[in-house]
Write a structure and sequence with these properties.
The protein is an alpha+beta fold and about 130 residues long. It has one domain: GTP Cyclohydrolase I, domain 2 (2-Layer Sandwich). Helices cover about 30% and strands about 30% of the residues. It contains four helices and four strands; from the N terminus they run βαβαααββ. It has helices at about 20-25, 40-45, 55-65, 75-85, and strands spanning about 5-15, 25-35, 95-105, 120-125. A four-stranded antiparallel beta sheet has the order 1-2-3-4. α3 packs antiparallel against α4 (about 75-85). The radius of gyration is 16 Å and the shape is elongated. It starts with a strand and ends with a strand.
Length: about 130
Amino acid sequence: MQQKISLKGLRVFAYHGVFDFERQNGQDFYIDCSVWLDATKATVNDDLSHTVSYADIAKALVENAKGESFDLIETLAQRLLETVMNMAGGDATGTIRKAKITVHKPNAPIVYDFEDVSVTVKAKRD
């Protein structure tokens, strides 16, 4: 059985963007993350060590988003996806089988009125 863990609207202040002022001044980015894994053993035993902690997912996303700066949010999203796909719980069943990351950049430098700019990436293990 697969379970889905979702984290929505994780706010990170970081320095990504094509323009110098974006890299100098920084801005808020919001990250949505969904992961699918078999956490059956965790739910049967009520044991966190057999799943992936959403707190650990949040920490990994924030640390990575604040780490290296990228011109493109496409690159940031892909790096975050790779980070999440490499996370694992305490046993093989806790391994993430599928993940989806969306990076939102609501303050993107666009001269028109808009609500949000986002990029979504997905991965799945065979």
